[in-house]
Amino acid sequence: MVEDDLDIANALIPALRRYGLMVTHVRTAADALAADPGDLVLLDLGLPDGDGINVCRQIRSVSDVPVIAVTARGEAADRVRGLRSGADDYVVKPFAISELLARIDAVLRRTGLLQPRPRVTVGDLTVDIEARTVQVADKPISLTRKEFDVLAVLAAHHGRVVPREQVALYAWQSVFEASSRTMDVHVASLRAKLGRPELVQTIRGVGYRLGSD
């Protein structure tokens, strides 16, 4: 994480670590370029010793590590400039941490660094993510494409809470769907078809979890 604002860094680091990520924090462009890039770079564009756009270009010139620009620059021209400099995604401050986590997940998945479990079994429910099949008590269950996508992202993170924004990015390719009643309708339909409503748990104010209790 390249972030010169300590208040922002101190808020983000615990959240990222709770999500299971190991975080190295630096505050300047020089330190960013000297650091091991790790598996992903969260890059503020307004740094005290240089423009983050140039940092992104220099990172991209020597590495294909995924970069997410995290910045207060929200104009369309700034977004275009950031993405053209080599950033894989662009998040504008202020943002919900759940959205940032969803975007991290999406970028890691696109770049192949996050490999979902191909087959997940919870009780008598079996989800084959690669084959896109679902069975309950060894009987096949027919789901719509969106219903399966919702179940697949929960199964890939079995036992962990998945923010609504992350479900929306996976199933609808848009975080804006996270606040829509459409998602609630699909989740309700999914529970009804599985016949195991307790498996798809709602974590109020956060998202959903696939679990057995």
From TrEMBL:
Sites bearing 4-aspartylphosphate, chain numbering: 44
Supply the InterPro entries for this chain.
CheY-like_superfamily, OmpR/PhoB-type_DNA-bd, Sig_transdc_resp-reg_receiver, WalR-like, WH-like_DNA-bd_sf
Instruction: Tell me the SMART domains matching this sequence.
Output: REC (SM00448), Trans_reg_C (SM00862)
Outline the extent of the OmpR/PhoB-type domain: 117-212
Task: Kindly indicate which segments of the sequence are annotated as binding DNA.
Answer: 117-212
The superkingdom listed in its UniProt entry is Bacteria
User: A Pfam family matched by this chain, by name?
Assistant: Trans_reg_C
Cross-referenced SUPFAM superfamilies: CheY-like (SSF52172)
Keywords of this protein's UniProt record, alphabetized? DNA-binding, Phosphoprotein, Transcription, Transcription regulation
Residue ranges of every copy of the Response regulatory domain listed in the record: 1-108
Q: What is this protein called?
A: Sensory transduction protein RegX3
